[in-house]
Amino acid sequence: MIGPWPRAVHAVDPGAAGGSSSKLFTTHRGPVDPGALVIDGVRVTSLSRTVVDMAAWSSFLVSVTMIDHVLHHEAARVSAERDAGIVGAPRITQGSLLTELDSAHPRNGHQAAARAITFANGLSANPGESLGRVRFEELGFEIPELQVRFDVGGCTYYVDYFWRGVRKIGEFDGHIKYTRAAVMDGRDAVQVVVDEKDRESLLRPLVSSFDRWGWKLALSPHAFYRFLMDKGVPRAPTRGRS
Predict the structure, then answer these.
(1) Which domain of life is it from (predicted)?
(2) What global pTM score does this model have?
(3) Rg (CA), the chain
(4) How far, in Å, CA of 148 to CA of 151, rounded?
(5) Alpha helices, DSSP H only, in the chain?
(6) Quick one: 187 exposed, middle or buried, by C-beta within 10 A (0-12, 13-18, 19+)?
(7) What digits encode the pLDDT tens for the residues 182-198?
(8) Measured between alpha carbons, how far is 237 from 140 in angstroms, rounded to an integer?
């Protein structure tokens, strides 16, 4: 999640006369989730239903971030199972989430949830990349291609964002690559920085520009808008210029 954690636990009760709430607990009347499961002794809704319920009442940013995450990890899970010869649970997709949404039929937020599901993209590899895409949408900029491949110097690189029409690369630099062991792949922080600079040096001659930004900038809509305008990120053709 991007933003504060929910303050209350939300529960579905098909027999409830209506919604009720307290400081830490909110009950909703609704259909039983046929995919419900038990985790650590607690009966919880399925992953698909949980995502749909969250998308129905959360902000567009929270919803897209969560759905991107699920789609990304579901693709990785199915790929790993296929390589291992395992037939696991069906993959969660945008189509299956839209079906789940119609089945859950929330009293409020159906349109908002459908918008978030439709906009989501499993190619977003982390919440920071999801944040960038949401900001592009909210601020009226063209949505770029994700994880575009470049072959240069005998190496293959994938970039976070690519605006093909103006040959512009954008990268979300959340600093995880400099601190998270799984991402650093045995390298120390200095080597990670050197590798990133070498990668950027190889990619820059192939494009018109290469720009980076981090959490602080992207979390401020006004500052990020000025940054994107200054860097020449193309505006969405159907959007106004307010």
Answers:
(1) Bacteria
(2) 0.87
(3) 21
(4) 10
(5) 47-57, 60-83, 94-104, 110-119, 127-139, 176-179, 181-184, 189-203, 215-218, 221-230
(6) middle
(7) 444 566 777 777 888 99
(8) 9
